[in-house]
């Protein structure tokens, strides 16, 4: 297939920076546990699917797309570096055979200062920041060996225009799509498909033939009701809290009607279809990650989910509604979570997806 250089415009939705009470750095332990659970999957994938003997240089390039502020990105990178070193040793090449160049990518509004201050002192790689949207090109052709992305691809490049217009997909009174019309859900799904195509097309040009793409994607199990997906349930409860503020006269109804969360939780068939349509990658592995449930009280878990949601959405919410409602909004969310069946019926579903770049032909890339 002919590869077209993408120029997709993508909005930035940065996580809370710094190291404060509501920072992403202090409220991303859940994501960290999921990343830890992929260590063996990464080991096995690199051992089986990465062909060290085909490398043309001793510089090994890895890019983390949507790295945020740490510390989780460093765990992913460390797991990959160690697995590649083990592969080298198995091949009799020695642990110092490769020099690792790590690229940490996120939007320019990401708190790169916190990220760089958190770099491990004992790291065995050279690190560089790469600002920009991963929905477009970021690197030279054939310059990457492994691409990874964790908890980033569920973020859409933009809110689908139809959901904020008075069309059949208008999402009046809601901020996500749990109780929305079929048309609203469809435009969210279509936007995800477009964004995945942009992501895969860009990576197909940047990654070498035989290179690997390792993804952790929060989604939903095939056939699962939207009302049972934890992320969707959380956003639905957040929308209810905002509508309570409308009833109290704190916010206008029009203000809530014009706000929608640009996140889509895809099913495995949707991911498979996106890869198939792109045509540049083969799916080597697609596996649901199993995480142990915590033994915390419902009150404690509600607080954790509220803080984590605030870390991920506060900048987006502040931009639309202003900072002054944030404390009340997330206190209300914690209370709603505690008094809902969220922790009894909610389905946590994260997919580990391993893609391998198919051999490249010599056709010129269209620009």
Low-confidence stretches are 1-8, 362-367
* Rounded mean pLDDT score: 92
Outline = globular
**Total count of strands:** 7
Describe it for me?
- This protein is of the alpha/beta class.
- It has eleven helices and seven strands.
- The protein has a seven-stranded mixed beta sheet, sandwiched between helices.
- The longest helix has 25 residues, at 182-206.
- The radius of gyration is 21 Å and the shape is globular.
- The protein starts with 28 loop residues before the first helix and ends in a 10-residue tail after the last strand.
- Residues 1-8 and 362-367 have low confidence and may be disordered.
Short description:
By secondary structure, the protein is of the alpha/beta class. The chain has helices at residues 29-36, 39-49, 72-90, 112-117, 182-206, 230-247, 253-257, 268-278, 298-321, 326-338, 342-345, and strands at residues 59-65, 99-106, 126-131, 144-150, 207-218, 281-289, 350-357.
Give the arrangement of secondary structure elements.
Elements lengths: L28 H8 L2 H11 L9 E7 L6 H19 L8 E8 L5 H6 L8 E6 L12 E7 L31 H25 E12 L11 H18 L5 H5 L10 H11 L2 E9 L8 H24 L4 H13 L3 H4 L4 E8 L10
Parallel strand pairs: 1-2, 1-4, 2-3, 4-5
Antiparallel strand pairs: 5-7, 6-7
Helix pairs in contact: 2-3, 5-8, 6-10, 9-10
Features:
single chain; 367 residues; alpha/beta; 7-stranded mixed beta sheet; 11 helices; 39% helix; disordered N terminus; disordered C terminus
């Amino acid at each position: 297939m002919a590869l077209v250089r993408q120029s997709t415009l993508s909005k930035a939705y940065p996580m809370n920076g710094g190291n404060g009470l509501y920072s992403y750095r202090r409220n991303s332990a859940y994501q960290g546990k999921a990343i830890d659970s992929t260590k063996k999957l990464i080991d096995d994938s690199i051992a089986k699917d990465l062909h060290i003997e085909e490398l043309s240089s001793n510089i090994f390039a890895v890019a983390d797309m949507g790295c945020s502020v740490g510390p989780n990105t460093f765990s992913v990178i460390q797991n990959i570096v160690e697995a590649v070193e083990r592969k080298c040793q198995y091949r009799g090449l020695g642990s110092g055979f490769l020099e690792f160049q790590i690229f940490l990518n996120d939007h320019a509004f990401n708190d790169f200062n916190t990220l760089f201050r958190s770099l491990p002192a004992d790291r065995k790689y050279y690190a560089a920041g790469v600002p920009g949207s991963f929905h477009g090109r970021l690197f030279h052709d054939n310059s990457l060996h492994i691409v990874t992305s964790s908890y980033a691809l569920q973020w859409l490049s933009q809110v689908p225009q139809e959901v904020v217009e008075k069309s059949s997909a208008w999402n009046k009174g809601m901020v996500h799509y749990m109780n929305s019309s079929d048309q609203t859900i469809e435009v969210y799904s279509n936007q995800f498909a477009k964004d995945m195509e942009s992501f895969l097309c860009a990576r197909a040009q940047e990654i070498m033939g035989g290179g690997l793409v390792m993804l952790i994607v929060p989604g939903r199990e095939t056939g699962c009701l939207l009302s049972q997906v934890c992320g969707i349930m959380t956003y639905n409860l957040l929308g209810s809290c905002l509508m309570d503020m409308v009833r109290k006269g704190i916010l206008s109804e029009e203000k809530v009607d014009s706000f929608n969360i640009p996140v889509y939780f895809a099913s495995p068939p949707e991911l498979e279809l996106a890869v198939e349509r792109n045509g540049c990658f083969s799916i080597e592995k697609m596996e649901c990650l199993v995480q142990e449930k915590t033994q915390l009280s419902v009150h404690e878990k509600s607080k954790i989910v509220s803080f984590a949601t605030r870390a991920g959405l506060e900048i987006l919410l502040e931009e639309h509604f202003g900072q002054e409602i944030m404390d009340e909004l997330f206190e209300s969310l914690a209370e709603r979570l505690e008094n809902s069946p969220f922790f009894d019926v909610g389905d946590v579903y994260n997919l580990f997806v391993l893609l391998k770049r198919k051999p490249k032909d010599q056709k010129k890339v269209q620009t």
